Fold this sequence. Notes:
Layout: H1 3-26, H2 44-57, H3 65-76, H4 90-97, H5 104-114, H6 120-133, H7 137-149, H8 155-164, H9 168-180, H10 185-195, H11 199-209, H12 213-226
Helix pairs in contact: 1-2, 1-3, 4-5, 6-7, 7-9, 8-9, 9-11, 10-12
Amino acid sequence: MELDAQARSKLGSALRNFDTWAQVRGGKKRYNPLEPWVKEYPHWDKLGAAFVFFLESRPPDLWNERDIALAHKAVLTDWAHHRLLRSVPDETIARLALQDFPDEAVRMHLQAKSRNIADVTVRIFVLEHFYENDPSESLRDEAVQSLIKNKWDKTEECVKEWWQTGDEYKQLTVLKALSNAKSPLLNEYMEKVAQSDNPSLQKVAQGLTNKSINEFLSSIHTDQKTD
């Protein structure tokens, strides 16, 4: 048996064992990965080892449809509790995250894991992939917030583009991302909020700073004069 066929067989068997356990534990044929008892599965180590063996036998960029379906099922077993991917190397996580999985829950899980990739260059590359290519608006927004937090070199260009759309949701995302990243650009965009007549933006801005817009801007101008 060829290595990749052996790896498929091993992972398939491990997934069937998990399904059998989940059906008994959950008391029904279909289980919800969000159920807290999913993390009680006693053989995550075996399933994880089978998944790593599968991943190492054939790089994700060479997968066929059958491989993608198998990996998709494996990630879905535990996208809520993060047991399966603990033993998967960062490089493989990155390759997995670059695959176009059809299920948004799988892509969401892989994006979350990608935020913890140790190599900042690789981490940003993967997050940029989500920002530029993911069909889900919410995942693209999450990617932007993570990128800005990682001091992305395209932050200024991106937030300017998003703000100019006039789309309230994108503008709120910009404010939250800049605030979470403690970006110096936040001051500039708080000025824009102050000049707008959008109560939603002003309410969010006030919540982010725990001050009214005018109080926040006044404190900035005071600091600038002191400097």
